[in-house]
Input
Amino acid sequence: MDGEVHTSGRSESSPDGAGPEPMPRLFSGLSGRLLWLTVIFVMLAEILIFVPSVAGMRMNWLRDRLDTAAAAGIVIDGLQPSELPRAVQDDTLLATGTKVIALKKDGTSRLLAATDLPPQVDQVFDLTDVPMWISMRDALDTLFLGGGRVMRVFGAIGDTDMIIELVMTDDALRKDMLKYSKMMFLLSLLISLITAVLIFLAINRMMIMPIRRLTHSMQFFSEQPEDPSRVFAGDRSRGELAVAGRHLAAMQVELQRTLKQQKNLADLGLAVSKINHDMRNILASAQLMSDRLTDVDDPMVRSFAPKLLRTIDRAVGYTSEVLAYGQASEAAPRRRRIRLAELCQDVRDILAIDPDASIEFIDQIPADVEVDCDSEQLFRVIHNICRNALQALTNFDPEDTSMVRRITVSAHRIGSVVSITVDDTGPGMPRKARENLFSAFRGSARSGGTGLGLVIARELVLAHGGTIALVEKPGPGTQFRIEIPDRPVSLEDYRARA
Output
């Protein structure tokens, strides 16, 4: 419905209750796992870098051999047609680490130096233009499967059309690649450890320490949640953990307020139980004595005696239900069809509005409107709301005699639902009371109030399957709307009545 506000040493106990559960140590908790994960991830990243790196090292190693052999080959080629002495050839082959050096020039190949010609060549590599993926494949093949294999390597000399060609074993290449890999592994491990330590220190300061602080605060607070000094003291930074800390502090404050309210309710229940025992006896005696007033012949006594008897009967009924309300909930409604105008008249009589207070009570309920309800419970609902309105009007600017002070109760039936409206021209409900409407000890509109009247009214209305709502109104004052539906009629009951 439009315009309505509806309601409806710090330690922690272990899960098995055996004792306090200690916080994990620094390196065995979350920070320790982050440290080792960082080391592993950095090592994985280094492995991805290592493959192209070792492929580049292999290509550079082979090109260095080609460049050295090319320099020697050009010198030897310039000595044509004489042939190098055997000793010079051996020195050249030793310097390049090869078994054969050949030079291809003008379409003709010339053997410059050779010794111990191998019976066969196992691999052939052209270094003129090698794709990266082929270079990485050949590097891994040499690193893991190489050793004792003969390879033929050739490539162009600079920008000329001459091609230098070498035949050698891959033993020296594989040995240098293993040394390079070992150096890369140690360097990667050192980098990963340094990175992990730096990340560990940064994360430990930015995350682990605040998380531990939050955990310690929760453990410390859980030991004595009613102690205000144990509420978490957050900071005003903008980080996610700082926001979580502020929410934790707010939750702890709210929990303390709730615990205090529950303690107040428990103390109140105990006090009411003690008072109720004696009050019920006193009211029973008053009831016996008031019965004799019906025998008095005084007309004035005869006029107010029935109202007095009904009031005492209601008081006795309330005291009988106090313990049940404190122990569980309100009794189930004993519903029957009643005339709402008569019940509203009883509310008006009980309010006993002072004529000098200039407060009007207007009853706009048609005489034929009937409601299917528990009369005593609905009386309490309307009486609580009207009493709140009367108190608001009485305390609101009492010196202003020109102000209209009015309480209006109206009702109408739509189908099987009776809608009851209680409206007043008072100051209206403050914002805090509206935000905590129907909340015990928080929804009171006046200083010193408990807000229990609206809580009880809501519970009784809900027991009838109805609704109660605060209605927004353009003018000053407060307006409540109560809707009570009729009980559904079963087919058997309908036939029995028919």
Summary: Residues 226-328 form one domain. DSSP finds eleven helices and 15 strands in the chain. The chain has three domains: 30-193, 226-328, 333-396+403-497. The two ends are 36 Å apart (CA to CA).
